[in-house]
Design brief:
It contains seven helices and no strands. Helices cover 72% and strands 0% of the residues. It is mostly helical. It has one domain.
Length: 159
C-alpha cells in the first residue's frame, strides 16, 4: 500500500508538471492563455457549501486562497489519476510501464473535464457554451494526451 501511494504521488506530480510545462509552451509560442487555477479553486471551494453548478464561475463569490486551492486541486487530481492507472494495472505497471494504460486513463479523464468541471463552472457540457468550444475540446484532448505521456514518462524515470 505504501508503494502504491508513493508511486501515485510521484507519477501524478510528474505527469501534472509536464502538463503545466505544456501550458507554458502554448502560452509562449502561441499566445494561448494558461488555465486559470483560481477559478478551479473557487469551484472546488464552493463544493462543501453545496454549490456544484455555477452560471459563470468568474461571477460567483470569490473564496479566500482560491488560487492556492486551485493549484492543490490540480495536483491532487493528477495524483488521483495516476492512482487509477496503478489500481487498474497494478503497481507492477510502474516497474515495467507501457504507454497504452497511461493513454487510456489520460483520454478517459477528458470526460471529467467535459462532464463535471466545465458544466460545473458554467461552460456547459464539453464547453458547449463557449464560442470556441471545438478549440477547447481539441486542447483538452491534446492536454490529456500530454498528461498521459507524463504518466508514462514519469513511471519510466522512476521504475
Amino acid at each position: 500500500m505504501v508503494e502504491f501511494i508513493l508511486r501515485s504521488v510521484v507519477i501524478g506530480i510528474g505527469a501534472t508538471a509536464l502538463l503545466d510545462l505544456w501550458a507554458q509552451v502554448l502560452k509562449r509560442a502561441f499566445g494561448m492563455p494558461a488555465p486559470n487555477w483560481a477559478m478551479v479553486g473557487r469551484w472546488f471551494a464552493h463544493l462543501p457549501r453545496g454549490r456544484f453548478l455555477h452560471d459563470d464561475i468568474a461571477r460567483s463569490e470569490p473564496v479566500a486562497n482560491e488560487l492556492a486551492i486551485g493549484w492543490m486541486a490540480h495536483y491532487a487530481v493528477g495524483i488521483l489519476f495516476a492512482g487509477i492507472v496503478l489500481a487498474i494495472w497494478g503497481v507492477g505497471w510502474a516497474h515495467a510501464p507501457t504507454f497504452l494504460p497511461a493513454l487510456i486513463v489520460g483520454l478517459a479523464t477528458v470526460g471529467c473535464g467535459w462532464f463535471i468541471l466545465q458544466p460545473g463552472m458554467g461552460a456547459g457540457i464539453a464547453a458547449s457554451k463557449r464560442s470556441n468550444a471545438n478549440t477547447l475540446r481539441l486542447m483538452n484532448i491534446v492536454g490529456h494526451t500530454v498528461f498521459a505521456i507524463g504518466l508514462y514518462g514519469t513511471a519510466l524515470l522512476t521504475r
